[in-house]
C-alpha cells in the first residue's frame, strides 16, 4: 500500500486507516460524524495526496487535451479550472477530472486515484504526433484541502503566520487557482473541493506536506479546524449531490445519464474517445428520446441508510398492482445535516421526475422514498 507524506501525522492524531485505490489513507479520526459537522459549520483539513497530478505542457498541450477529454479546453482561461470527463469509445465514463490552466501551454490535470494510469495513457495517445509532454507527477505531489465556512480565514492566517502575503487568496474565484508560497515552498492554491462547502486545495511538493499541514492545523485551531478523513468526505460529497467515479460514474453510464451532458463539447473540432456515441446520444435526447436509466436523488424519512446496490422499486398502484424494479441505488447515507436518509440512484427515466413516490428494498422490506432534485444541500460560493 502506498502512503502519503502525512501518514505518521495521521497516526499521531488517532486516525483509523482504510485501503483506497492502492493507498492507505485516513478513514476517520475522532468520528466521521463529528468531522462532517465540523466541515459544515467550521472547517476540516483533508489529506488528498492519493489523487493524481499530471502536467501536460508544450505547444501541442491544448490540442492533446482536446483530443483526450470531452470538454473544450481551449475555452479555459489561464488561472481557471474546468471539470471534464474521459470516456471510452462507447461514450461510457472512465473518469471525471479537473484541468487547471497554469499558462498558455501548461496544464495540471487531476484524475481520480484509481484512474491515474488510465488517464496518463489516454493523454499520451492524445499527444501522439504533437509537441506536448505528459508527465505523471503524482509521486512528487502532495494535496491538502481545507474545506468549510472558515476555510478562507484559516488559509489567510496560515499565509500571514508564514510571513507571506494573503492577497492572492482573498479574491480568488470558485474554480480558479493562484500561486502561493507556504512552508517556504511554491504551491498551487485552487478554490475547488468535493464537499459542497467553500474551500481550497493546495498542490505542494511532496516534501513540503508536513510543514504545511502543521501550519494549517495551528492557524485553524482557534476556528475549530479538525482533521477529516475519507468517510466524512464521502458523506459531504453525497449531500452536495456530487457523483463519484465507480459509483454514479462508470463505463456503463454516459454523461447525459448523470445530468452532466453540459460538460460534453460536441462543437469543438477535435475527435476524442466516445465522440460518435455521444453525438448519437445528444441527437436522441434532442428528439425526445432521452437516455435511461438516469441519475436522481432519493429522500426517505428514515435513519436507515439506503445502501449502494439496493433495488429501487415502483410501488404497486390501482392501475398496476405489481411492484417492479426500476433502478439501483449507487450511493446512500444517513445525512448528518438533513437528519434523514438520502441516496443517489440510477432509475428508469419514466419514474425520474421530482416528487415521484418510489421505494427501496432494504433487506426485503420496502422503504418509501421520494425522487428529489440534486443537490440535496446547496451552499453559496464566491
From TrEMBL:
It catalyses: N(6)-[(R)-S(8)-aminomethyldihydrolipoyl]-L-lysyl-[protein] + (6S)-5,6,7,8-tetrahydrofolate = N(6)-[(R)-dihydrolipoyl]-L-lysyl-[protein] + (6R)-5,10-methylene-5,6,7,8-tetrahydrofolate + NH4(+). It comes from the Bacteria. SUPFAM superfamilies: Aminomethyltransferase beta-barrel domain, Folate-binding domain. The keyword Transferase applies. The keyword Transferase applies. Residues 6-268 form the GCVT N-terminal domain. It is an enzyme of class 2 (transferase). Keywords: Aminotransferase, Transferase. GO terms for molecular function: aminomethyltransferase activity. Residues 295-376 form the Aminomethyltransferase C-terminal domain. Its EC number is 2.1.2.10. Belongs to the GcvT family. The glycine cleavage system is composed of four proteins: P, T, L and H. The glycine cleavage system catalyzes the degradation of glycine. This is Aminomethyltransferase. The lineage of its organism: Bacteria, Bacillati, Actinomycetota, Actinomycetes, Actinomycetales. The gene is gcvT.
Amino acid at each position: 500500500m502506498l502512503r502519503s507524506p502525512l501518514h505518521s501525522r495521521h497516526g499521531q492524531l488517532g486516525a483509523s486507516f482504510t485501503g483506497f485505490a492502492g493507498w492507505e489513507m485516513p478513514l476517520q479520526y475522532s468520528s466521521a460524524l463529528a468531522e462532517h459537522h465540523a466541515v459544515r459549520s467550521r472547517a476540516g483539513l483533508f489529506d488528498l495526496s492519493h489523487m493524481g497530478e499530471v502536467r501536460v505542457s508544450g505547444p501541442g498541450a491544448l490540442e492533446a487535451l482536446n483530443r483526450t477529454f470531452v470538454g473544450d479546453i481551449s475555452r479555459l482561461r489561464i488561472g481557471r479550472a474546468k471539470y471534464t470527463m474521459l470516456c471510452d469509445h462507447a461514450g461510457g465514463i472512465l473518469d471525471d477530472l479537473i484541468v487547471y490552466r497554469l499558462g498558455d501551454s501548461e496544464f495540471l490535470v487531476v484524475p481520480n486515484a484509481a484512474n491515474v494510469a488510465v488517464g496518463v495513457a489516454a493523454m499520451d495517445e492524445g499527444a501522439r504526433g504533437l509537441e506536448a509532454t505528459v508527465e505523471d507527477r503524482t509521486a512528487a505531489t502532495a494535496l491538502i484541502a481545507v474545506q468549510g465556512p472558515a476555510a478562507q480565514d484559516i488559509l489567510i492566517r496560515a499565509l500571514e503566520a508564514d510571513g507571506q502575503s494573503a492577497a492572492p487568496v482573498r479574491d480568488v474565484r470558485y474554480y480558479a487557482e493562484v500561486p502561493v508560497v507556504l512552508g517556504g515552498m511554491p504551491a498551487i492554491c485552487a478554490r475547488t473541493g468535493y464537499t459542497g462547502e467553500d474551500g481550497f486545495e493546495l498542490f505542494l511538493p511532496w516534501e513540503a506536506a508536513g510543514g504545511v499541514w502543521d501550519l494549517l492545523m495551528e492557524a485553524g485551531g482557534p476556528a475549530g479546524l479538525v482533521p477529516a478523513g475519507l468517510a466524512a468526505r464521502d458523506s459531504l460529497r453525497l449531500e452536495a449531490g456530487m457523483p463519484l467515479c465507480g459509483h454514479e460514474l462508470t463505463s456503463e453510464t454516459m454523461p447525459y445519464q448523470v445530468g452532466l451532458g453540459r460538460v460534453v463539447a460536441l462543437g469543438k473540432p477535435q475527435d476524442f474517445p466516445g465522440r460518435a456515441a455521444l453525438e448519437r446520444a445528444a441527437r436522441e435526447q434532442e428528439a425526445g428520446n432521452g437516455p435511461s436509466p438516469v441519475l436522481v436523488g432519493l429522500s426517505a424519512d428514515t435513519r436507515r441508510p439506503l445502501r449502494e446496490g439496493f433495488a429501487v422499486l415502483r410501488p404497486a398502484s390501482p392501475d398496476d398492482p405489481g411492484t417492479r424494479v426500476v433502478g439501483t441505488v449507487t450511493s446512500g447515507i444517513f445525512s448528518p445535516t438533513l437528519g434523514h436518509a438520502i441516496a443517489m440512484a440510477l432509475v428508469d427515466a419514466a419514474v425520474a421526475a421530482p416528487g415521484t413516490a418510489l421505494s427501496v428494498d432494504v433487506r426485503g422490506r420496502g422503504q418509501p422514498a421520494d425522487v428529489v432534485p440534486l443537490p440535496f444541500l446547496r451552499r453559496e460560493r464566491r
